Amino acid sequence: MRRTLPIAFVLATGVAVAVGMQWTPVSTERPYPSIGTIERNDPRLDALVPRDALIERLATGFHWSEGPVWQRDQGQLLFSDVFENVVYRWKDGAGVGPFLRPSGYTGSGPREGEKGSNGLALDREGHLVLCQHGDRRVARLEKDGRFTTLAERYEGQRLNSPNDLVFHSSGDLYFTDPPYGLPKQADDPGRELPFCGVYRLAKDGRLTLLTRELTRPNGIGLSPDEKTLYVAVSDPERPVWMAYSLKPDGTLGPGRVFFDATKLHKEGRKGLPDGLKVDQKGHLFATGPGGVLVFAPDGTHLGTIVTGEATANCAFGDGGSTLYITADKHLCRIHLATRGAGF
Question: What CA–CA distance (Å, rounded) separates 119 from 259?
C-alpha cells in the first residue's frame, strides 16, 4: 500500500514517530456497502437500533482493527491496527489515512505479534492516550509528537501488555493488562507478572491493582453514573462480562457476572468478549461472540449487531448516535436511536 511522506517528530529514545500523515485511502468504497444483520431478541432493542438500521462498511484491508475513539474537535475517528503498529484516522469524505506510526512498539529491533497500540482514549485535555502492546505501557501522545509513559510497571515489574482503558470523570484511568501483546503471550519468557490485572491509575500517578482474579481481562467501561465498572473477559473457557461496584475511593467492591457468553461461544459464533461502550441510559454495546451484543442495564441480552466477523471494539461518534465498529479487517458504522455516554 503506497504511503505519502509523514510529518516526523523524534522521541526521547531517538525513535522517529510520524504524526498527522497525509490521507492515503485504504479500500474505501462510496456509497458504503452494507454487511451483516441485526438479531432482535427483545422488543426494547427497537428503541436503540432502528428497524431500518444498516451496518455500513467504511473501509477494509486492515490486519486487525481495534480501539476506536472519536475526536470531536477534528470530526474524525482514530483506531488501531494492532499488528501493523499504526493508528489510522477516518473522516467522512476523506477516507482512511495513517495518523501515527509507530503506535505501540518504538523499539529498533524486530518484533512479532501484536506489537501496535490497542485501546485508545482521549484525556480531558484532548491528548491521545494509548495502550501500547509492544512497549508494554500506557502512554500519552504529546502535542509535539513525543510519548510520555503513564504506567509501565507494577511494584517494579513490567506490565504484560495494556489492552483497553477508560477515563473516570475524576481524571483517574482504569485499564486492563492481559498478555496478548507479548510475542508468546502467557508463555512468553519476558513476562514478569504472573497474573492479568485490572488497574486504576490515579491522576496523581499512583497505580493500584484492583483485581488479579480475571484470567483474560480485556474491554473495560463505566456506567453513566460511574458507580459500576464493566470488564470483558476474553477467555474461551469462561467468556463473560463482569460488573463491579466502584467504591468512593475508586477501588472495586463486589463483582458479579453481568452476562455469560459460554453458550454463544459454543455455538461457534466468531469472537470473544472484547471492547465495550455504554450509552446515556446505561445500555452496553459490547463486542463478543457474533458481533456487538446489546445489553440492558440489568444484563438482558436485547440483540446483536451481527458483523459476520470477529469483532474487537466499538465507539460512539459524530453527535453520539453513530456507533463505529472495528471488526477484524473492516471498519464499520451503524446509526442508532440512542447516544453514547458523554455526548
Answer: 22
What are the grid coordinates assigned to 101, written together? 506510526
Phi, psi of 52 (to 5 degrees): -95, 10
Per cent of the chain over pLDDT 70 is 91
145 Ramachandran zone, left/alpha/beta (phi>0; psi -120 to 50): left
Q: Which helix (H) or strand (E) holds 130?
A: strand 128-132
Q: Specify the residue for cell string 448516535.
A: 321
pLDDT tens per residue across span 98-120: 999 999 999 988 888 899 999 99
CA nearest neighbour of 66 among 290, 273, 326: 326
Which helix or strand (DSSP H or E) is residue 325 part of? Answer: strand 322-327
From CA 156, how far away is CA 170, in angstroms rounded?
26
C-alpha span between 316 and 323 (Å, rounded) = 5
DSSP string, 216-231: SEEEEEE-TTS-EEEE
Pairing of strands 86-91, 95-101: antiparallel
Q: Which of 308, 272, 266 is nearest to 287 (CA)?
A: 272
Q: Would you give the DSSP letter of residue 24? A: -
Domains located in the chain, CATH noted: 27-335 (2.120.10.30)
